[in-house]
Amino acid sequence: xxxxxxxxxxxxxxxxxxxxxxxxxxxxxxxxxxxxxxxxxxxxxxxxxxxxxxxxxxxxxxxxxxxxxxxxxxxxxxxxxxxxxxxxxxxxxxxxxxxxxxxxxxxxxxxxxxxxxxxxxxxxxxxxxxxxxxxxxxxxxxxxxxxxxxxxxxxxxxxxxxxxxxxxxxxxxxxxxxxxxxxxxxxxxxxxxxxxxxxxxxxxxxxxxxxxxxxxxxxxxxxxxxxxxxxxxxxxxxxxxxxxxxxx
Length: 248
What we know:
The chain is α/β, with parallel strands linked by helices. It has helices at residues 20-34, 63-71, 88-99, 118-126, 152-158, 165-180, 192-204, 223-232, 241-245, and strands spanning 11-18, 40-45, 48-55, 75-81, 103-109, 132-135, 137-139, 149-151, 208-213. It has a single domain (8-232), classed as Rossmann fold (3-Layer(aba) Sandwich). It comes from Nocardia ignorata. InterPro entries: P-loop_NTPase (IPR027417), T_Tr_GTP-bd_dom (IPR000795).
């Protein structure tokens, strides 16, 4: 029996980089949740089924090897440890992705750690020249107080932050202002789909880096991450292939 052909627009080839331990845990979670043995995940978002192919460089990979993995990637998921005080390796990977205009999004992990600092993660990403960090989610507390994640896209449009709305308002304003600065629109005219489209366009153009928060350690929920990979990172059809070919 022949293999079913997959339309390239429904494919996402993603490389997981960043904090070595966090990247390894994320790869293992994907395999555990989906029983994936070939690092391929089937995921339905917005009414369409997508194929997400995941690659993860070895924890022991040299910087030169990591640079090549990033250069040839269609898109990358950068795992950032919120409890890490310093991450020079992460800085290097972010700069390589920026230099080669590789679309990326960041997943902040370790928010339940005693030294977790979400704002520090944002500053680390902001200090990398080029794309600006854009929080799509923020944590409810950190350390022992970490109790979950607020989805700012929904909160900005639907006011769905519940009892944490006040603390999320600053982030919601920053989200809307960033996404509408070059194409102004009245906030009450925005829809969730509008925001998704704006995030996708600016992520693929290298203007922004969407920031997501990992769920509490007791949860294996990675639905928001997979939704973001499908919605915002490019398919092979969008990536400038000739530049990638030169890297092989």
